[in-house]
Amino acid sequence: MLSIALGELIQIFRNRLVLVTMFVIPAASGAGYIYLYDKVPGLDRGAVAAVLMFLIAAMSLYTTAVTTLAARRQNLFLKRLRSTAAGDTGILAGLLLPVTAISLAQVTAILAVLAVVAGGPADPLLLAGAVLATVAMMLGLGLATAGLTNSPEHAQVTTLPILVGTLVVAGWVGFTGTEELTLLKRVLPGGSASELVVNAWNGGVPIADSLILLVPTLGWVAVAIALATQVFRWEPRR
Amino acid sequence: MVPLPVERAGGWNGHMSSTPVIDVERLNLTYGDFHAVRDLTFQVRRGELYALLGTNGAGKTSTLETVEGHRAATSGTVRVFGQSPRDRRAVRPRMGIMLQESGFSPDLTVRESIRLIGSLTRRRDTVERVLGAVGLTRKAGTKVAQLSGGEKRRLDFATAVYGAPELVFLDEPTTGLDIQSRDDLWDTVDRLREDGATIVLTTHYLEEAQQRADRIGLMHKGAFHKEGTVFELTQTLPAEIRFSLPDTAPPPPLDAARESGETFLIETFGLQRDLHLLLGWAHEHAVELRELQAGPTRLDDVFRSIGTA
């Protein structure tokens, strides 16, 4: 797994576009928030944290995971890896480990800027749990989407529903709360994870009430993995 | 000559034996309504070079991919080293696979690609040895995207022979290679065979199969049309003697059929005997056999006979 991950990391660092994007997204997001902090006083910090986290999770992690898997399948690299003694789980883990690590670093950097500018989270451990659950969900959704994606170009289309959907849900839940349409907001992908981030950052919610929000997020992980096992392909369609 | 690595998995002694490395029993493969492979049964013995040949769409690749473990059989059993080839952890360290298409990451260099795939084979070897064995030492730092088609085939071959596996699958290994590279590739295969490796080959170059295969499975429409040694396969069709005679010559012996104009054809299952008789007849009648050609049946002829069977 580690040798596959190292190979992926080498490729990422040789791709200037990916490299620039890696730094531009967190830098632009951080700068954007600092700008809004002055212009829009009283902006809910938890909601901002949720949106920024999903910005990275959707744009950097999810879309890159889908594009990477589609590209590796299209040029038969997945088949090549399966010609070795490596197991399927190890291959997928190796391919997705670098982008996951980079995305986590980006989320950490952005949330660190938010903490420095506007004050840190009330419960950092809960926030870490929310981030990890979100990462797991987006990876699962990425695997499932990759199964429906024929090529990296096709990924620009197939990733749109989840990409836009999770960002909209994160903003909706973050800025309007879950007092109304509670069930709907929590079961939508990213809804309960966003609420969890808001609770972790702003505080004031009993820990038990927050932890229960992990269930829908992990439920989405299970659904995505189950879907991926049905639709994921290792070779291009003939 | 680049030596093979000393250490091998499995503790095998490298001699050809009757022990089947590959044992396929009543293999069937279907894709929807399409029956790609029908009741295929064959074995490949340790140390053999077995060539799987056939017409386009005959089911060679499907069969090969099933034996390699890339594909599950619809029915029937496939055993490699006595185990299911789907058990990659158990079987893959002992086999090398040269795919029909490259499947390397274009942004990695040749050295990085061999190191990556080599490390995943769980066999011991060095990248430099393999680079030397396939003649890619000077391209070690070149990105795969910048390699020619032939160089990519050599890279593919390099990963297949990394660690000198006991069983090597070569799917169209010489397609796109120049003569020198082909010779180099076969030299490496010969060295693997001297060390006892079993080779499974598919190729469209029939002369390669004719020269090198111990046995051949000739597939057509998902089943074996014929299977056996080159001698056994070519024995099923008559050899040909072709010659021309002037109009003034007496009728030739041996039921020679007039092919066109002055040209005659004798089809025979006893080439040496009938050629001796023909030459004796020509000597006796003081007739010159012009443009005399006589040769055994070639694999090409057997291959062509598939369409007429």
TrEMBL record, chain A:
InterPro entries on file: ABC2_TM
GO CC annotation, single: membrane
Domain of life: Bacteria
Gene Ontology terms for molecular function: ABC-type transporter activity
Transmembrane annotation, as ranges: 17-36, 48-71, 92-119, 125-145, 157-175, 211-232
Subcellular location: Membrane
Membrane topology: Multi-pass membrane protein
Record key words, sorted: Membrane, Transmembrane, Transmembrane helix
Domain (ABC-2 type transporter transmembrane) ranges: 7-171
Chief localisation class: membrane
Listed Pfam families: ABC2_membrane (PF01061)
Protein name, entry field: ABC-2 type transport system permease protein
UniProtKB/TrEMBL annotation, chain B:
Residue ranges of domain ABC transporter in the record: 22-246
Signal peptide stretch: none
SMART domains: AAA
Record keyword ATP-binding present: yes
Record keyword Transcription regulation present: no
Keywords: Antibiotic resistance, ATP-binding, Nucleotide-binding, Transport
Cellular localisation: Cell membrane
One term under GO cellular component: plasma membrane
GO function terms (MF aspect): ATP binding; ATP hydrolysis activity
Matching CDD domains: ABC_DR_subfamily_A
SUPFAM superfamilies listed in its UniProt record: P-loop containing nucleoside triphosphate hydrolases
Membrane topology: Peripheral membrane protein
Entry-linked InterPro entries: AAA+_ATPase, ABC_transporter-like_ATP-bd, ABC_transporter-like_CS, ABC_transporter_ATP-binding, P-loop_NTPase
GO biological process: response to antibiotic
Highest rank taxon of the organism: Bacteria
Protein name listed in UniProt: ABC-2 type transport system ATP-binding protein
